[in-house]
Specification:
This protein is mainly α. The protein has one domain. The chain is built from 4 helices and no strands.
């Protein structure tokens, strides 16, 4: 059940990451202050989990995994 939830989160992040980032979503929702901080924290946590699963699926390790994780999270969050 846990893997199903993670897979669904990964798919939703991948589907939205091509068009939107966490920052653009927050701007679209006009979030500010604590709501913005909470939203960005959750979004980055979800992105990290989805990217970690993607790295595992691709069987990446070492520098390749580090590079993939950095790019994946940055692209999703929108830093």
């Amino acid at each position: 059940m846990k893997t199903l939830v993670i897979a669904a989160a990964a798919l939703s992040l991948m589907a939205t990451s091509a068009f939107a980032t966490c920052k653009s979503d927050a701007a679209g929702k006009k979030l500010a202050g604590a709501a913005l901080t909470s939203f960005m924290t959750k979004c980055e946590k979800d992105a990290t989990a989805a990217c970690e699963k993607d790295s595992t699926d691709k069987k990446l390790a070492g520098a390749a995994k580090t590079s993939h994780m950095k790019k994946c999270v940055t692209d999703t969050v929108g830093n």
